Amino acid sequence: MSEHESIWSDLQGVAFTQGYLDVDGVRTRYLHAGDTNAPALILLHGSGGHAEAYVRNLESHSEHFSTWVIDMLGHGYTARPGHPLEIDHYVAHLIAFLDAVGVRKAGISGESLGGWVAARTAIDHPDRVERLVLNTAGGSQADPEVMRRIVTLSMAAVTDPTWETVQARIKWLMADKSKGYDDIVASRQRIYRQRGFVDAMRDIMALQDPEIRQRNLLGPTEYGKITAPTLVLWTSDDPTADVTEGRRIASMIPGARFEVLPDCGHWPQYEDPESFDALHLDFLLGG
């Protein structure tokens, strides 16, 4: 019998804080662990997600970094601006967050949408990014089938946030479909039941609109401008794109390292935290 997975047990024994900051007028939720005098690391979740995507990674990373996980703009418990969200909006919010916590330069690691935002930040603000990790990152292609699937699952989960609809959205992320992911489902269900979150999700889903997505996509010219040391991390069972796409992204970034984690879907940091943390920290610490 597998052990029950719990967000709280993941955080037990970890010296962390949860709080809110005013980030250019945007009330922004964060989790933080580690010495604030240590080098800074920012972890960014995916589309429709929230900071809990990284609860299993806070402890190991806080031993080396002042580690921040945020609910990105319009997500989780961070304020919602009330308009369709494009990559520049997320980048501006991230840079303002760095300014708010007094961080000039940070390692930035993003999963899915977070990886898209992290890459664009490294392109537009190279002086703010120490090292870059693109973890099953979005932003390199527009696959109509994947885009439709994301919209269908996400809108179903917020329009009628039952256990089943929210669980379906979570299980889509994972390679192992046999687990219930009860604690993550409960956490996300609470977020999706917030007043006004249907409209918020429509704004989040803007990047799944073909026209909007096209003007936000990154190609060889954009990726080629990245100067920060970069790790492109992919998985064997990512539902958004196969390993070939991850390798293609890495090939466009000068000097990028490419790694694949087996038996993981879109959340390797959660499904196999031990392997993820070992690889992630090796890179972030200069390996």
Automatic annotation (TrEMBL):
Provenance organism: Nocardia transvalensis
Keywords assigned: Hydrolase
Superkingdom classification of source: Bacteria
SUPFAM superfamilies: alpha/beta-Hydrolases (SSF53474)
Enzyme Commission identifier(s): 3.7.1.14
GO biological process entries: acylglycerol catabolic process
GO terms assigned for molecular function: monoacylglycerol lipase activity
Name recorded for this polypeptide: 2-hydroxy-6-oxonona-2,4-dienedioate hydrolase
GO cellular component: membrane
Occurrences of domain AB hydrolase-1 (ranges): 39-273
Pfam families cross-referenced by the UniProt entry: Abhydrolase_1
